[in-house]
Amino acid sequence: MLTLNLALAGLAIGAIAALSGLGLLVTYRTTGVLDLAHGAFAMMTAYLLWQAVRGWGWPLQIAAPLAIFVVGPGLGLLADLMVFRPLRHRGAGPSESLVASLGVLVLLMGVAFQVWGGQAHLDAPSIFPSGAIKLPGGATVLTSTVEILGVLVVIGLAGWLLSRYTRIGLYVRAVVDRRELAELSGVNADGVAAIGWGVGGGLAGLTGVLLAPSVQLTPFGLTLIVLETLAVVVIAKLKSPTVCVLAAFALGIAQSELQQVQFSDPDAQQALGALQSNLFVVALLVGLLLRPRLAEVGETGTPALLAPSPRGRSHRLWILFGALALLAPLTFQPEDLRAAEVVPALALIFLSLVLLTGISGQISLGQAGYAGMGALFSVMLVQGRLGIPALPAGTALAVGALLAGVAGLVTGFAAVRRTGLALALTTFAVGTVATRFLFEQPAVVDGLHVLRLFPGHKAFYLAELVLLTVGLGALWMLSTGVAGRALRAMRDSEDGARSVGIDIRALKLLTFTVSAAMAGLGGALLAQASGSFDADAFSPLQGLVWFAVVLVAGAESTTAAVGAAALLVFIDYREGPGTSTFVVGLLAVLLGRMPGGVAGMLRRWPADAAGPVPAASLASPWRPRETLPGPDVTPTRPRRLSPRGRELLMRVRR
Is 134 helix (H, G, I), strand (E, B) or coil? Predict the structure, then answer.
């Protein structure tokens, strides 16, 4: 039975989620970019308001308007100017822009970690005064709830009026309906995109400022909470603001009403508490499973950032150098060797992304979830907590990796019908659900202790290198020969691969299963290297960072993946935790200018230094030059406009 007081409390949650969802929706509909950096904009705005009020002693009446109306929109405009506008002018598709927004997210988290550290702040200032209002019938509603609802109504009404009765709204609708046609009609599409980024950044900043007083202010925590509001955007099919607001209110009220449900069984009550506190995450996953296709703008294929570059002559030298670098820690002091134990484990996780994303072209943002499952299951198997007798550490390691592979197989069934944005969000939701319902539940993780393969550091590191070699061998077998050609054909074009008889379903199931098992093995080794199971090590945002690392290093390069793992560990060990996140984010926002990542740039460097290849040298010596195929000049038939497109064209011209 609904309780009025709880429903009124849920209105505040729903209103904040609606503001965040509207910001995401505005940015996506005007630019075609689903802004994964939305949560980072919110986090940075909340941090700067906290710094201004608590650190510098500014009055809240001055700091709050600056944060909401300057910092939030400014971050959005800066991201558009520095990152997304160059991609848009280059003709990049939504997949590349999605990866670029991930780079902005990682960069801002790294900046926040470097400036404010990772400790939680519980004294974030509230822009609304405390107090309650009594309603007829004895119910009470917080003053802040009424004011948040008022803000939502004002923003929603202003947006509706601007979109319907102003020239700016006409231009925005024209760009949303058909960007190319709007540009031909003289509409400043870059200006419309800037408006979208400014409004989206401003709503993200407002969301962060409203959420910060009620949650722990941390670089990762607040960012993830805001990203969970993707659920209302998915329910709205990425296009309906009305459905977005209604879904936000429904989830907010449902989350609040679940507090009154009580079970006598402690385990059932704990499960219900987990569902209540993570209802938006569950709604995100369910919404994605029920909607295999989203209303995506533009192409949804494999981004050019994943495209491999030809291997240079120095490829074998890099492999030799990498092998020597991996053996070097055996000569280190015990403390340095213990830090180096993380490298092979992290390299296995990165190799799993090379297989799944770089070779087969499946964008996966939830790899940390599979790594965490492998770590958790292996630790539980050693203690006999899965209903079977305790297993030796080595056997538990293998079985834990296999169980993670089973989870990947289940995800593979969902991935068969999904590509691009839908697949990326589904894998992110799977990783988030695994974190919230497994890794962070006291009933699951309490009392766990890690048993290492070998107690000695050198023996354990050598065992890690053997397992890393096995992973490299498995990846080599899948990436060469008939299997490798089939995977790359699927990456380049699923329809084209299907037309020549390739079983796309079987390939996706295979790659998701093997990739998840490899990530699970790396996660289990990571837990053994650190000596404990830490849920934060496998958080969903950590998975986003790992994905960005692989893209920056080179999505298809195994050597670059192993080298990136070593470099990340070295940077954090020498400069402090979180430093590598900043470096990765800085490189990730530049991915649009270096297709193939750092590995691709290094492979192309000799050719780039030598200058362009003469056109005459491209002719084959085995046939006359005039027989070489020329450009396709087949005329294309102009596309017919829809009635709505013709109406918008006439209105824009007037």
Answer: strand
